[in-house]
Amino acid sequence: MLDTMTFTKTLGAFCGALLIFLLAKWGAEELYHVGGGHGETQQAYVIDTGAEEVAEVAEEVNFDELLAQADLGRGARQFNKCAACHKLEAGANGTGPYLYGVVGRAKGAAEGFGYSGAIATDDVWSPENLSAFLENPRGYAPGTSMAFAGLKDAQDRADLIAYLDSIDN
Fold first, then answer.
1. What are 135-149's pLDDT values in tens digits?
2. Which residues on neighbouring strands pair with residue 93, listed in sequence order?
3. Which end of the chain is more exposed for a tag (fewer CB within 10 A), N or C?
4. Of 82, 73, 86, 92, which Cα lies nearest the Cα of 162?
């Protein structure tokens, strides 16, 4: 039977258990934060990592120079990363649009491919635009469905663009 005394005992037991858990939490926090908290104490020994030194600024290399020095063989090897989704034959779309004649082609103009809408169609794929896109596809065209992380090395991008430009003469 459920009477007033049983209800009072149950509620008292629940409140007592809650109080014990709260006190245990408070005690654990006090043990963990011995010394008054984070950031108020000094380290006994600091290792010099040279972080205060000014980092050398990487020289910006002209992309046209990189494109002129591009190695088509390395570009073909770089294309292997693209080959899973893109094809080099005109009109043969894969998961991504075909890349035959992509250098100089209008953006979003691959016939028969449904673009995600992130690529602006009022410009052409110049080597500079391709380089910016290949460096960070999601940063260049937010909302693109291209899952590729990008090529960080400028020479790798130049090699790939030169290779793509060479296949359509």
1. 888 888 888 888 888
2. none
3. N
4. 73
| Residue type (1 letter), 26 | W
Backbone angles phi, psi at 69, to 5 degrees: -95, 5
DSSP string of the chain, one letter each residue: ---HHHHHHHHHHHHHHHHHHHHHHHHHHHHHTTTSSTTSS--S-----STTSPPPPPPPPPHHHHHHT--HHHHHHHHTTTTTT--SSTT---SS---TT-TTSBTT--TT----S-S-SSSB--HHHHHHHHH-HHHHSTT----------HHHHHHHHHHHHHTT-
| Residue 14 banded pLDDT, cuts 50, 70, 90 | very high
> According to CATH, what is the number of the domain 65-106+116-166?
1.10.760.10
What is the residue type of 125? W
**Closest residue by Cα to residue 151 from 97, 96, 77, 95:** 77
57-107 pLDDT, tens digit each? 555 667 788 888 888 899 899 988 888 888 888 888 888 888 888 888 888
- pTM reported for the whole predicted model: 0.62
